[in-house]
Amino acid sequence: MSQDKLLIGALEIANLPELGISDLKIRVDTGAQTSSLHVDNIRTVKKNGKPWVKFDIHPNLYNVDEVIRTEAKLKDVRWIKSSNGSRQQRYVIETLFQIGQREWPIQITLTDRSDMTYLMLFGREGMGSHVLVDPSQTFICGENN
């Protein structure tokens, strides 16, 4: 069964193609239940009568002028306990996640991670049965997918 799983390291490069994001450095965290993405200017809108969220992403930590404005269907609103123990309500979206030559849909909470080194945290729910993690390695899937 493990031969079907993708081996990934503690840091990887991933794509979120439905959001227009590619070559995003992510931190793989088996201690985190949910995946989270740093976004700015979150706002809810109605699209065909359904709730959606619009938000901005700065995909390059070193160039804050680069902005991707995107939107996604709102999947849920959840209370999340962060690593520092505080609880906050977050919007949850579901989007396609690509790493290496694999892709699958994952749920991601949208939050302010501006004080963190990596814009995305890849948690256990997103990993599912798709990956095995070697925490001693980084960028196993390559710098560019």
Commentary on this structure:
This protein is mostly beta strands and 145 residues long. It has a single domain (2-134), classed as Beta Barrel (Cathepsin D, subunit A, domain 1). It has one helix at residues 124-127; strands at residues 6-9, 11-16, 21-28, 35-38, 40-47, 50-57, 68-81, 87-99, 102-111, 120-122, 131-134. The chain has a nine-stranded mixed beta sheet. A two-stranded parallel ribbon has the order 1-11. A hairpin with a 2-residue loop joins β5 (40-47) and β6 (50-57). The longest helix has 4 residues, at 124-127. The two termini are 24 Å apart. The model has no long low-confidence stretch (mean pLDDT 90).
Based on Cα principal axes, name the global outline.
globular
> What name goes with the CATH superfamily?
Acid Proteases
- Strand % is over 45%
pLDDT < 50 runs, ≥5 residues: none
- What is the H/E order? EEEEEEEEEEHE
For this structure, the CATH topology is: Cathepsin D, subunit A, domain 1
Distance between the termini: 24 Å
**Structural class by secondary-structure content:** mainly beta
CATH C-level class is Mainly Beta
Total count of domains: 1
- Rg calculated over all Cα atoms: 15 Å
| Number of helical regions | 1
Helix content: under 10%
Tell me which CATH architecture applies here.
Answer: Beta Barrel
Protein name: Transglutaminase
Pfam families: Zn_protease
Organism: Catenovulum agarivorans DS-2
Domain Retropepsin-like aspartic endopeptidase: 8-141
